[in-house]
Amino acid sequence: MTTPVRTRYAPSPTGDPHLGNARTAILNWLFARNQGGVFVLRVEDTDIARNVERGEEANLEALDWLGLDRDEGPVAGGPFGPYRQSERVESHRSRARQLVADGHAYRCFCSEETMAADRAAAIATGRPPGMDMRCRDLDPSIAEEREAEGSTPALRLRVDPGPVEYADRLKGALSFDGADLGDMVLLRSDGRPTYNFAVAVDDLEMEISHVIRGIGHLSNTPKQVLLYRALGVEPPEFIHIPSVLAPGGGKLSKRAGAPGVLEYRDRGYSADAIVNYLSLLAWSSEDEQEVFTRQELIDRIDLDRIGASDAEIDPDKLRWMAGQHLRRRSATELATDWVALPEVSELELGQDDLERAAEVFAERMYLTTDAIPELTAVFADPVLGSEEARGVLSSPDAAMALEALAAVWAETEWAPPALKSAVRDAMQACGLPGKAFFQPARIALMGSAHGPDLAAVAYALGDARTADRLRRARETSLNLISEDQ
Ligand code: GLU
User: Fold this and answer.
1) What are the pLDDT digits (tens) for 89-124?
2) Facing residues of 456 across strands?
3) Three-class SS of residue 214?
4) Which residues of 92-102 are buried (b: 16+ CB within 10 A; e: fewer)?
């Protein structure tokens, strides 16, 4: 029987996750879904000093937005809970006590000062530090007695020198010497578990089969391997993935041009684009395809194709990806995305207006928020009193162009290609050169002589609004002409 696939994302609740965290979560999720497995969220909140208020919520919000649903976790619950590390301390303690009972661990009564003095002495005499473990060979019954008398020991794992071997799916066979690790602390004298011990116990008890995480954790892995073996089980499969770097190669940060996940959301990137982009930052598909739906990513994820080198965020590529996903959304979906933006909702447009705008303008956009300037420029009432507008509309040609256009469009089917060819007909009918024809038409519809394709603007505006704007501009034009005379 093969063991069921169970992956986990184990964030510390330190706030809005960065793109590297998000990529770790995405790979764990994709792999679990690909294998018909289980995706677990475990919140690693034992380092109280690092926790921030709302840190867990920000993580959950980011996962929800990215669409990474959890089968088990602090909110979803599940058979291996609790899923907050701080609520699992009893099980860390009992595992540590078990290791003492089995002889794999021992009570250590040395103070920080004693340990530091021993380390300094070792270094001074050229011996490896961390080997003078005074309590290692303490008779267990004496150690128990001291504890009973009120001394509070730390619990340490007995680590013997000698090679220890394990494998990483990407790095291959790895080996280290127990002598380099020393007798690691499992529980501090105040009863708090150490980081590596808590992680190993939790992964073991949650029956995690694959640990997919950032390469930064590679140095923790030898300790965790020793802990698993001391606890009598083989470790899960380890997959340490290369780092995600900020544009230019630095650490991920907002200042370096790589803000947190939720900020990408607020800037108008779609979750599908972020998931797609970060997946491809980790692994490449066999063909050249770059734009994938979620289901395609689930079907194609291949841990063995994860690249070996660190990858930098490329903001232009990410924006391009956002545009690709935006253009795959239907007009109805885009209308729904846009109306949720306060600036767009203020324009008080109907669903049909938004859908027509989506049909013709989506190809100019990358981010959801690009709709704000685009739709405002098109739908806000055109200002005809500006110097530019007055300059253009005061020409007698302007009134003629607007009249010709209104007449032709009044007879045209309201569809972009028909509106476009009607523009040519109107231009011919009035016999004006391009600029003399187009400038007043644009001023009439948008209040500016520049902007997107005229027929597209008219289509988005709809027939009634277009006719009304042409009429108003023509009236203004006629007034300006008569003022001039
Ligand atoms: N809590 C760790 C972090 O946020 C992850 C631990 C792990 O994946 O083993 O970096």
Assistant:
1) 999 999 999 999 999 999 999 988 887 888 888 888
2) none
3) strand
4) bbebbeebbee
Distance from chain centroid for Cα 16: 9
Backbone phi, psi, residue 412, to 5°? -100, 145
Q: Which atom of ligand 1 is nearest to the CA of 199?
A: 9
Closest atom of ligand 1 to 213 CA is: 8
8 A C-beta contact, residue 233 and residue 52: no
The arithmetic mean of pLDDT across residues 11-19, rounded, is 91
Q: Report the pLDDT value the prediction gives residue 1, as an integer from 0 to 100.
A: 54
Distance CA 141, CA 136 (A): 13
Euclidean distance between CA atoms 104 and 160, whole angstroms: 10
* Arithmetic mean of pLDDT, 453-481: 97
d(CA 225, CA 208): 14
Q: Which residues contact 47 (CB under 8 A, 6 or more apart)?
A: 12, 195
**Is 223 among the catalytic positions?**
no
70, 11, 59, 65: which is closest to 37 by C-alpha? Answer: 70
Please list every protein residue whose CB sits less than 6 Å from any atom of ligand 1.
10-12, 44, 199, 213, 217
Q: Give the per-residue pLDDT at 338.
A: 97
**Separation of alpha carbons 87 and 270, rounded Å:** 35
What is the distance between the alpha carbons of residues 56 and 107, in angstroms, rounded to a whole number?
A: 34
Distance 113 CA to ligand 1 centre (A): 30
pLDDT-derived band at 285 (thresholds 50, 70, 90) equals confident
Q: pTM for this structure?
A: 0.91
Task: Give the pLDDT of residue 15.
Answer: 83
Q: What's residue 173's pLDDT?
A: 96
The predicted model gives 131-137 an average pLDDT of 81
Cα 3 to ligand 1 centre (Å): 23
Q: What is the pLDDT of residue 131?
A: 62
From the list 219, 212, 174, the residue with the least C-alpha distance to 196 is: 219
Compute the distance from residue 224 Cα to the ligand 1 centre, in Å: 13
Sequence-distant (6+) residues with CB within 8 A of 34 are 298, 299, 301
